[in-house]
Structure formats: structure tokens, C-alpha cells
């Protein structure tokens, strides 16, 4: 099955290469598109590569195959977006391809990938109706998008070259409304992670933490994109920056899945979360302090004076260390593992439990050998 996994990877990467080659010349006249193109390339390459690695190494785990399939759908959507941005090419590639490929990729990744993470099985048999409902809603939505009578073009509705007419067209129009059920299925899939975490053992909880951490980064990127939308002037460059931030953050999801499934440095997630909780607020506070200090310094010393810049740097530098220590103390008090002894150093409890289990097993084996020899 390894050849099939890497064949799917080659298909997705080949489609990505076509998108990059076709879209790169457009960035010469419109350089604001470069961040979007690069972020999409990183995201798709991460998704396809992790999927192929998981599928080839764990062929019985459907997560790898789902990621490979979703990567191909994302790549097809990218081809459609590239043609649509260039405003050239047949309608079948510009509008039709993107009308269903993006929806298929997001629906499959947002439902089955979450329902089956990390071991490829549902949390329990009770979640089978959610899985069947997710599949049915996704299929209905994709069919409705692909064969609707009209497509949403840049300048208004256009006739779908593969659209159905008459009563069949009306049916496909209705099928598009299955998007609401797809959204409900995604929410249910997120809820399944909560249920799985409550019932999980120590190792599985660490796997779920990696995925949750990646999801938190996506939420943080979404908040940043919303701030850009609120304060920046409307423009194509602003929209491209928002898409680039979100897409780059989404690239962390397949990487987290890879770490969790292969259990590579699984126990470092607690330290990563801890440092994130320290440095994200620190950057925000220091950035806000600099933004507040610069206007005051410019008013006092003049907008073109270097004294204001130097003063701002000194003020910010003076606050970095005490603010960082204050945040670290708060985070460590609330989230850092409790010491295993009254005077010992702070230890990751998951790692400590794993070490204790290995040590107990070694002692047990040594006693058994000694008993046999006696």
C-alpha cells in the first residue's frame, strides 16, 4: 500500500506544482498575491506529505488516507482558483472545479479527520450516526455544488457546463442546502474530541493536546485576520494577507497530526503550551506598550527626532524582563506541573508517570529473573 500512498502524494504535489507555476507569473504584476501562494503551497505540501507518511506507515489507520484525499481536493481547488484569478481558461476549470473541490476538502477534513483521530476509530459505537450523517451531508453538498444549474462567477451567475436542467436542476439546488448539515457535522466532530479526551488514557490525551494546540493557533490566526479586517483599509492586499495568515496557521494542523500519530516527542506538548501562554501575551503587551509610547515621544521630541525612538526602545526594553517573569509566574502557577516532591524540580507529570511505569516494569522483570534463578 506504500506505493498507493505516495502515488496520491505525487498527484497532489503535481497539482500544486501546476498551480504554483501557473500562478507565479501573475505575482510579477500583483506581488500582494505572493504570501497567499506561498502559504497555500506550505499548507498543501504539509497536508499531503503527512498524509502519505501516515498512510504508508499505518495503512490500517484511515487518517492518512483521508489526508491524502483531502490534499488532492485542496489541490484541485487551487487549480480552479489560479485559473479564476487569471480570468482565463475554460469555465470547467475556472468556476466549476472550485465550486465543489474546496467544499469536499473542508468537509472531509473537518468531520472524519476529527471523528477518527488519533487511532482511526470512532470514540464509541454511538458516534456511527454522526459519521454516516457526515458522509451523507458531504455527498449531498458536493453533488449539489457540482451539478447546480448556475455557478457563482466573478461578474454574476454563469451557466454550469455540467449543470442539470429542469426538475433535476431544482433537486441539485436543494442539495446545496446540505451545507448547514455539514457545519453541524463539523461541530459534532469537534465535540467528539472532547468526549474522547475525557475517556482517554494518558498517551491519547497527549495526542489530543497536539491537535488542540494546532487548533488554538488557527483560532489565534483567525483573530488576527479579524483585527486586520477591522482596522485596515479594504483592499486586495489586505484580503490576501488575511488568507495567508489563516492558511499558514492551518499548515500546523497536519504537522500536529503527524506528531500525534507517530508519537514523536509527544511529551513536549505541555512545555510548548506553557511557553506559548507566556510569549503570546508578552508580545501583545510589549507591542501595545510600544504603540502607546511612540506617539507620546513624538509629541514631546518631534516626529523626526531620534530621541523619541531611543526613548521608546529603552522603555520597552525595561519592561520586557519584569513583564515576562510576571507572566511566567502566573502561567506556571496555573498550568505548570506540580513538583513530585517538596524540594525537587518541576517535572512533567505525564513524562514522570511514563518513567515510573518503565522503572516498575524493569524492577518486576529483575525480580522474576531472580526468583527463577533461585
Structure characterization notes:
- With 374 residues, this protein is mostly helical.
- The protein has two domains: 2-264, Rhopdopsin 7-helix transmembrane proteins (Up-down Bundle); 277-337 and 345-373, no CATH class.
- It is built from 13 helices and two strands; from the N terminus they run αααααββαααααααα.
- It has a two-stranded antiparallel sheet with strand order 1-2.
- Strand 1 (150-153) and strand 2 form a beta hairpin.
- Helix 1 (2-23) packs parallel to helix 3 (62-86) and helix 2 packs parallel to helix 10.
- The model is unreliable at 338-347 (pLDDT under 50).
Key features of this structure:
single chain, mainly alpha, Rhopdopsin 7-helix transmembrane proteins, two-stranded antiparallel sheet, about 0% strand
